[in-house]
Structure formats: structure tokens, C-alpha cells
Amino acid sequence: MAANGGAERSAVETSRPAYGEAVIDVYHRREPWFSECSTHQFMNYVEATRSLAVLTSFRSDAMRFFKHITGVEPDRTPNITSRRRSYFLSLTFPNLVEALPHLEKMSEGVDAIEVRADLLRAAGATEPKGYYIPAVSYVADQVAALRRATPLPLVYTVRTMSQGGAFPDNAPDEVYKLLALALRMGIAYIDIEVTLPAQYISELHSRKGFSQFIASWHDWNGDMKWDSPIAKEKCEIAHKTGDIVKIVGKAGKIQDNFTLYDFVAKYTDKLDAKPIIAINMGPEGQMSRILNHTLTPVTHRLLPFQAAPGQLPFTRIQTALNTLGLLPSLRFFLFGRPIKHSMSPALHNTGFEVLGLPHTYQLFETESVNDEIGALLSATDFGGASVTIPYKIEVMPLLGELTAAAKSIGAVNTIIPVSTDAGRKLVGDNTDWIGIYKSILSLLPMEPIRAGLVIGAGGTARAAVYALSQLGAKYIYVYNRTKVKALELSRTFPAAPVFVIDRLGEWPAGSPPPNAIIGTIPADATTLAAGGNGLHLTPELFEYKIRPAVVVDMAYRPAETPLLRLAKATGSNWVTVPGIEVLLEQGYAQFEVWTGRKFPYSSVAPVVRERYYATE
Predict the structure, then answer these.
(1) SS in 3 state form for 25-59?
(2) Cis amide bond preceding 172, omega within 30
(3) Per residue in 435-484, pLDDT tens?
(4) Residues of the chain with CATH 3.40.50.720
(5) Which of 47, 201, 252, 328 has the most CB atoms at less than 10 Å from its CB?
(6) What residue spans of 135-244 are helical by DSSP H?
């Protein structure tokens, strides 16, 4: 295994002996050796800034790479195995760096992003389409830049001219080299044309690892009929070659889509059927793109051009599916009291609107968990619910199953209806801990949590303890004014290093001060004034001064609570997380388990923050 990316740093390193030549020249001279003695390559860019965003993206990128190539967690979209509809965005930029500023918006709703290696073109290239071959090193740089910018898995394609692409038809050796590069870089999905010479397909299979092959065949001229022997033959070849079958035709009339639909139905009825991508190109084939279930290619208005004729945006497909009755409108709720000032409707309804999903989210405030809530849970159009105080425990008897997190925490803030062969069941989950976990990790991406402090002992405090345990905290201090409740909480986590303390600012003998603090009690229950009403917060809390540290306050209002205000005034190394940010993070997680879609952060978060601060 080789790790690339140190050349730039080594070039400016002064503590090592001089090479006598440019480090980059040394690297290029030795590169064939590196490739020969390694199975994979991870490429990292040495950034000019060491910002938190850069550190976070590096950590997630590296973890994803190593988890994929070792099989610990292959980099795949769960929507294929869960049989939900899945989509990928077909990028058509000759230089993918140009796409990065718009990537988050362009990829809203999709499950993967396609790299069209045949469309990549280095600056200054003059060869016409069908004659230009991008350098392997250029393609590798492009993939590395893209993967650093997105958490989504990649689909990697080298489409030849005869199959509707831009790569020369008479260069199978170069196609193989580029496909082998995709395996070395640990790309999730690799498109292999079944027309590639058999020896190359066999060699790629021998090095496949945990990547998945999309075995594809395209009838670019429109000669193939879906009920013809050729369609069956190409499907059988693709079935033997890949993990996913891809057959693309061209519609001359609307009826061609019905023939395609019958073809897919017959294939999927087979016991050994694999996921299949079957679509018709052209305007008359757009219906097939709407009906296709697995990895439908989509376009976006910000792309230079469509990768294939007839491609549709993700949002238009969702609207069409709803019209056809294949994506029913669902109702989502927030159960709790009081909730009239909640930002959750703004978060979820804006998310639905951005992705073109036909759903609604509304508040449902009652005096208790009663029959009205039971009726909503059993309604056929019930899509899911958020649960807040005081019902995070009371609602649990209405649920058929709890996730591991909800069981450990002993509280539910998310209800998910799940269809099974035996009917529908209601699953209780807890995403509060995810909001805390991600808020801390995003601010301290490379910093271990040596010790964490949780203020409070209610349901949210339990989520905080769980989050700290998942972050690997060696010490978790819990303080509550009623000590018996803190002791009860500690017994909930027998395997976690939980220590109940008697006084804020006093840590167990020989134990470090916390570098992560999580407040879980209302802001008006705290004070900075000695003798004031509420829990007195003092600068001793922020004793840790060595490296960056973080304080999270789960209190929803005000935006700057006494705890956060004290942190800013006491320690310059302490970064603060207001409750609205945790609300956003846990809401993103809810949205994704309900819809199976990545939350459109860049389009929604600014809207929610603006509405929140406007009401402060």
C-alpha cells in the first residue's frame, strides 16, 4: 500500500538532508517502484491552510479509504441493499476542480457521484473527442480532489466512443490502466464495458477487492429492441461480469419503455438476479429513467452539459414518481410540549422542498402520550416523528423495537416506520447523541477527548454520555444538583468510564480536567452570579488550557447561554456550540433515516439559522 501526498511537504522540509534535486522529481522517478510494490494508493493534498474543515475532510477521507479496502466498511450506498431507489450525479466537467464549489448543491439527493474519466481533459489538450487519452496521474489527481470534497461514494466510468463516450475505441490497454487505477484508489463502483477484451476483465476481477463492478452495454444507435435476443444476450454477459447490470437502449417511441419495463420484470424475477440499471436514452425514454430503481443517472442545471440525452434532474424524477403514485405523500410530526417555537418544521419542510419530496412536517402538541398520538402512528401516511421533552421515555411503550443507541440511552427522539414481510413496525431511535457527537468531532477532528463533563442527568444527558463514550473519552464526569439522579444515570452505562462528581470544577484525584463540556439543562436554570437563582457556573469549569477544547450547550434558547458566555470569557482555546447547531445535526440524521436521502445542508441550514436568529 502506498500513501501519496508528502512531496509538497518534503519540498519545504529543512531538517532532512538535501536530495540534490527537486523532491517532486525524485518522486516521479521512483513512482514505478511505488506502484509495483503496492496494491493501493491514497492521495492527500497538503493544504495551504490547516483549517478545521480541511482536517475534518482529511480524517473522513482517510477513514473511508482504509475501511473500504480492508472490507471493514465498504464505501457503498445503503439504498441499493435496502432496495430503495438510488441515483448518481453524472459529472461532465473536464476539470473536476471546477465542480467543487457547486458540488454540494449539485449532488443534493443523490447516492453517488460519477467520474467520467473519458470526459476529463487537462488544460491545453487539443486532441478531438475520441482521440484524447487523459494521463493516469491527471485522473488520479482529479479523483483525489473530488473524494476530498464529498462523503458520497464514487462511480468511475471510462466510456468509449462506440458506447456513447469520448474515449478512443482502439485503446483497450489505456482503458485497462485507468480502470486499474480505480481499483488502486479504492473506488466504490467501477463501470466496466462488457466489450472490453476478456483478458482485461479477468485481470480486473482478480484485483477487485471490495469494489463493485457495473457491467455495462450501451446501444447508442437505437438498433436494439428490449424483446430481442441481443438484449437478452448482453444482459446475460453483464450478469456474469458485474455486481450490477447496466443495459442502455434508445427509445423511438413511448411504447419502448413498456417493453423495457417487461424486460426488467422478467430479469428481476430470477432467483439470482442482481441490481439492474435499465434505461432508454432520448426524450421518449425519460419515462424509463423515472421508473428505473437502481443508480439512475441524473443531471443538474449547473453542469456544463448532460452526460447522455434524456437525463433528468433528481427533483423532477421525485415529482414524477409522486404523480405516478410511486412516491406517496407522507406526514411527519414533532411530539412534545411546549413546541410552538421549534425550528424542526423549518428544517424538515425546507429539506423536503429542496429535494422535491412531497412530504410535510408539522407540530403536534398534547398534554400526554394519548390515543391521538397512537392514531397518528398507525395512519397509513405516517412517515415518522421527532419526540422531545417530556415524552422521550413515555412514547417507548408504543414502539415495537428500539435501536442499539436508543436502548443504551434509554430514551427515544425519533420514530421510524419500517416495512417488513410481516407488516409495518415502529422503530425508536435516538439521534440526539449523533448531534452531539458530530458537533464535537467537526470542531476537534484530530483531538482526542481525554475527559468530558455532562451537566444534568435527564434524557439528553444520557445521550451526551453515550456520545462521549463513542468519542472514546477516558473519563466522563456527570454533575447534577440531585445527585441520586446522576448516580442512576451512571448505572445506565456500566461499561462506560462514568464518574459522578459532587461539585463542578472538582475532578476525581489524579484525573484530567475535561476538554469537552456538554450542558443539558435549561439555560434559565444556570447563572454566572454567585448567590443567584440556578446552578452557579464558575471559571473552574474551563481549567483545561493545553489544546483546543469544546463546550456544547443543548439549551435551545437563548443562542448564547450563560455556559457559552462563560466559556468565551474564560478560555481562548474553548470553542462553543449553541443548541441550534446540535438541533441541526440531529435533525439531519432524522431526515436521512426517514427518507434515505442525504440532507441538503447547504440549501437548508442557512434558512433555519436565519429564522432562528430572527426570533432571538
Answers:
(1) HHHHHHHHHHHHCCCCEEECCCCCCCCHHHHHHHH
(2) no
(3) 999 999 988 888 899 999 999 998 899 999 999 999 999 999 999 999 99
(4) 433-577
(5) 201
(6) 136-149, 172-184, 198-206, 229-241
